[in-house]
Amino acid sequence: MNNKAKTPNQLFDISGKVAVVTGALGAFGSVAVRSLSLAGCKLVITDDRQDELENFAAELRLEGGEVEVCALWPTSAENCETIVEATVSAYGRLDILVVASGMLDVDYIVDMDVSRFEQVMKTNVTDSWTLCQAAGKQMIEQGSGKVVLMSSSRGLLGLPSGYSAYCSSKHAVNGIVKSLGCEWGKHGVYINALAPTVFRSKLTSWMFEDDENAVTTRNAILSRIPLGRLAEPEDLVGPLLFLVSPASDFHTGHTIYPDGGYTAG
């Protein structure tokens, strides 16, 4: 048994690790990318907007980051394999995968066409599973790796306002995490998920406004959040750094809820 304690800096040291972030131009994805870059990770960033990705990468390089661009959305096994192959080609390995890509489509079940339900499940579940498959092959071969998927408080709780597709998809994400946590443990590959409540993004920015509908919606959500505010993408950085660092080396198959206490009550 090694009784020599790691320093706090050692526990959270991910400098030199190779990380892929999908959905890198999104609200959480872009914050995750910058945080991992500042922590010393070598990065491959993916999204489907080539010019914006290149501009983001250029910003990070000016800040001292080491960044490669892969302008693909993880919508097929081929794309997912290409993302992993590009990463290994650039850096020789893949240590961290952060799946920050996903979608939200809200409607009452009686008004939602099945094709919309299937698209939510495809984007949030199948694409996450396929990324795990591609990354898992490489990480198992290496004997190490950390994966973080994007879940939601809606993966634990229902909502009476048209979230049947989204809630179903996030419950399924949590199932992937539990199953692969069991499957990959013997290989030294970890997988966990972040499950926030509402945080500021293009999709939710209207909830932060002062018009009547926004205030009513926000107050309803805030009535369940003990900390009394909605989240910012930066609120997810601390849990993310924990999950991709040595600090979480006895933590797999779990979903962490950075939700201000929303799921506590």
Task: Give me some keywords for this one.
seven-stranded parallel β-sheet; 265 residues; 2 domains; Rossmann fold; alpha/beta
Written account of the structure:
The chain is α/β, with parallel strands linked by helices. The protein has two domains: 13-196 and 232-259, NAD(P)-binding Rossmann-like Domain (Rossmann fold, 3-Layer(aba) Sandwich); 201-230, no CATH class. It is built from eight helices and seven strands; from the N terminus they run H-E-H-E-H-E-H-E-H-E-H-E-H-H-E. The protein has helices spanning 8-11, 27-38, 50-62, 77-91, 114-142, 164-184, 212-222, 237-244, and strands at residues 18-22, 42-46, 66-70, 96-99, 145-150, 189-194, 254-256. A seven-stranded parallel sheet has the order 3-2-1-4-5-6-7, sandwiched between helices. Helix 5 (114-142) links the parallel strand 4 (96-99) and strand 5. It is globular. The model has no long low-confidence stretch (mean pLDDT 94).
